[in-house]
Amino acid sequence: xxxxxxxxxxxxxxxxxxxxxxxxxxxxxxxxxxxxxxxxxxxxxxxxxxxxxxxxxxxxxxxxxxxxxxxxxxxxxxxxxxxxxxxxxxxxxxxxxxxxxxxxxxxxxxxxxxxxxxxxxxxxxxxxxxxxxxxxxxxxxxxxxxxxxxxxxxxxxxxxxxxxxxxxxxxxxxxxxxxxxxxxxxxxxxxxxxxxxxxxxxxxxxxxxxxxxxxxxxxxxxxxxxxxxxxxxxxxxxxxxxxxxxxxxxxxxxxxxxxxxxxxxxxxxxxxxxxxxxxxxxxxxxxxxxxxxxxxxxxxxxxxxxxxxxxxxxxxxxxxxxxxxxxxxxxxxxxxxxxxxxxxxxxxxxxxxxxxxxxxxxxxxxxxxxxxxxxxxxxxxxxxxxxxxxxxxxxxxxxxxxxxxxxxxxxxxxxxxxxxxxxxxxxxxxxxxxxxxxxxxxxxxxxxxxxxxxxxxxxxxxxxxxxxxxxxxxxxxxxxxxxxxxxxxxxxxxxxxxxxxxxxxxxxxxxxxxxxxxxxxxxxxxxxxxxxxxxxxxxxxxxxxxxxxxxxxxxxxxxxxxxxxxxxxxxxxxxxxxxxxxxxxxxxxxxxxxxxxxxxxxxxxxxxxxxxxxxx
Length: 616
What we know:
phosphorelay sensor kinase activity, Heat Shock Protein 90, 3 domains, Beta-Lactamase, Rossmann fold, HATPase_C_sf, transferase, disordered N terminus, alpha/beta, HisK_dim/P_dom, 616 residues, membrane
């Protein structure tokens, strides 16, 4: 069988025919162009990906630096963070950060450089011919893209310190508010073109570093200020404690001094009382004059001690005023009588002008003390035969009291300080006027306790002095009851059995003599155990008990006496050199019926005896 003939398909040189129009034929040049375009497109995509990766890496690096800087509180810590993180983020092998300190750059951190070079450039002048210094001087970044460029620009530096590793280098100023504060330097092991993106990254890193360093500096400055303030506060507290302790010791010394001075004054005062009693019938003129002199001097000492102690009390807030509605005229009258002996001794003339019915709300004893101190001050500082005047009237809702003298006056430079404690001691080396210089201090502080004020005026040395006191007037009040006349001291009444207890034998003996002269039976003891034994044996009706006894003090003695049934009705009085309010309060709490402050005058003693002899 014959096979059919095969069908033959016509062909062209480019391939089988499809029945359509034939495609145009590309030449070899066109194919190469297409291949190059495709390659370029692929390379561009690769470069874009690499650029994006670099940008992401740099952004991540900046973020790591930012995170690490959050814990950096000092400039050195900031520099270490930026160098450690920045070298890796920038692809460098070494780096340094230096900050300006006047005319030099100080290295804060350096990594990757030889130790000798780091030490050599630990501090370098801003004027030096070095990359870091130039960037600092100009305030512009320095981009050295190759080793050849670096050697050409800084031959001396390159010859001495350029390591074989360095192929390129950049120095970027650290700027804060357009002000360079330092430089960031990075060294690279390969040549770098430092394109725009890299430069922007390095500038951004330097900006981060600059801001962090400035923030750290502010933190350090604040910390330094806080530390200084803390030290100042501690020092002030220490000084305050020392001053307070010194003031406390001073007050304790004054209180102790007053107590110790009162102890010898007690027998002296009592002895003078006895002398006056014994001499009253004889009346020898010389003896009377001597006795009067001794009494004046003892009163002066007592007043000085009391003034000194009162200043200390007021300073510590230990004085409580016993206020009542007072007519100042009566207070002034009593004060004038107290000052009259000194006035007569100095031969001064005194004029007094007092407006009637000027009332204040005050402490009678303390206001009399104010007037007495003003008068005594005027009398002392006026030459014999001078004139002292005292005036009092109501002025504009205040009571005005003024003492004027024709005395030595006060120099202008001392006038503002005249009311300061111990001012008198600083006036001159002349101690002929005596005194401790606390009288006017006491006047001022007592006036202020009454809500008043004081003023001193003087035209200068030799021109006399005028001291004024203003006190608030008392408002309208109900008719004040007439003051009850004080009970006259008396030793009358039934004779008492009296026990005197004092370790100062002279003081006890003086009081014994006065009591014996008035018919009382007196026993004595000089320590606590002996006092308890004598009291139980003799059952006295009045016990005068010194508080400052050796061994067992008066507080313990009175507690034991009060515990004895046979002594329940005894009248027990404390006799002590301590006379402050807290001392009297403590005496009451311990069981004393009364508290007498040494030296005890005979009228005080006899008044106490009268109270003790009353029924109940």
